[in-house]
Amino acid sequence: MKKFVILALSLLLGGACFAQVRSSSDIDSKTFVIGLDNYIVGGAGGLGFSIKSSAFKVEVEDETVSVAKGNNPKVILYQDGLQVPAAYGYSLPKLKGDFVVGVHDFTGDSLHELVIAVRDASGNGIIAFILQYKDGKWNSIGEIGALKGNVNEIRVFRQTLTIKNKKTGALYTWTYHKNGFTFKASDKTDSADKLL
Q: For strand 38-41 and strand 33-34, is the pairing parallel, antiparallel, or unpaired?
């Protein structure tokens, strides 16, 4: 019985860590967002997915991210530093580096949310927008990131996104709870706004 319990715990812990481990496809694609269900990397490309039997296609081209539902016209979600659905009351700097666009279920309702992540050209800043399709439009349910510090990737596991400052070792986490993301930091950072 004791061996069975140890084996079960090993499998559970191993499974929990698996989403945080960079897979061979992550390595090949050079993604900087680890743990998404499906994604594209780079300044151009397309990704198809569905939500409640509605088909969507998101495209990245010329620093613009747009999405179309079926044969409907494209809706621009991100364009050259302009975050169309952004809830921030101030302007974020333009990020003209790499893009990762993917899907993941953060809300626990078995429906995908869309993630648009942008890493600046210096490789020291990341912004990620989490968008939910509801009532016929895309709404931002979370905007996370760190532009100050030495950060180069985001790790996704279940409802949590984590960014690590490579220089200080500090971890910044955003976890989805019912109506939005809550922020915690392993250092003395008391507000996510201070990272921007």
A: unpaired
83: pLDDT confidence band, cut at 50, 70 and 90? low
SS3 readout for 169-189: CCEEEEEEECCEEEEEECCCC
Q: What is the pLDDT of residues 30-65, one digit of tens each?
A: 788 999 999 998 878 899 999 988 999 999 888 788
Domain range annotation of the chain: 23-195
Average pLDDT of span 4-22: 41
Integer Cα distance of 143 and 131 in angstroms: 9
Q: Are strands 154-157 and 33-34 parallel, antiparallel or unpaired?
A: parallel
Q: CA-CA distance, 196 to 194, in Å (whole number)?
A: 5
**CA dist., res. 181 & res. 37, Å (int):** 19
* 55 contacts 71 by C-beta, under 8 angstroms: no
Return d(Cα 182, Cα 165) in angstroms, integer. Answer: 19
